[in-house]
Specification:
The chain has 181 residues and is of the alpha+beta class. Helices cover 14% and strands 27% of the residues. The longest helix has 21 residues.
């Protein structure tokens, strides 16, 4: 009888060797080396943007219009000064100053329009009725502001100076606009 239990044990071992793989045949096999969830590691991702302070400026034309004589221009009251706008756009929060140079035909600090060697004196102002020269020689002649990030229209007023007699024609000048920030 000692032999029968050994045969039964051997048969059971052989059957169990075939039965175990059959038991998993209908299931998805689990990965042998599953690393997801086995641990964690962290790092920091730095994200940045740098906004540089900047400004842009656009000038327009200040047109004194037409007159049949320079004396008509000189007789224009300060409340009738022609106006134009300088457009300034700066980065939000930037403090800026706008200055206007004396022009291409300046003489002795006097701005002048020119036509074929003939000159007509004029001036630019920061306000309609004031005598506050709009210039660039020092900070008191400039217009200051702090940007909101939107374009700002800075008004410029002009006046032909009295005492000039010139021939008919179109008189021109150009002046440099500078934005300091």
């Amino acid at each position: 009888m000692t032999r029968a239990p050994a045969r039964i044990a051997a048969i059971c071992f052989v059957l169990s060797a075939f039965a175990i793989p059959q038991a998993f045949a209908d299931d998805d096999p689990a990965p042998l080396n599953d690393s997801v969830g086995a641990g964690t590691a962290t790092a920091t991702l730095n994200i940045q943007a740098t906004i540089m302070a900047s400004c842009s400026v656009t000038g327009n034309t200040l047109d004194f219009g037409q007159a049949s004589g320079v004396r008509l221009f000189a007789g224009v009251s300060a409340t009738q000064r022609p106006q134009t706008t300088i457009n300034v756009l700066c980065t939000k929060g930037v403090n800026y100053q706008v200055g206007i140079g004396d022009g291409s035909n300046v003489s002795g600090g006097q701005r002048r329009l020119v036509n074929n060697g003939n000159y007509m004196s004029y001036e630019l102002y920061k306000s309609l009725t004031g005598s506050d020269r709009f210039g660039d020689a020092d900070t008191s002649q400039r217009v200051s502001g702090t940007s909101t990030g939107s374009s700002v229209g800075v008004p410029v007023f002009g006046q032909i100076m009295s005492g000039t007699t010139v021939p008919a024609g179109q008189y021109l000048d150009t002046a440099t606009i500078t934005v300091y920030f």
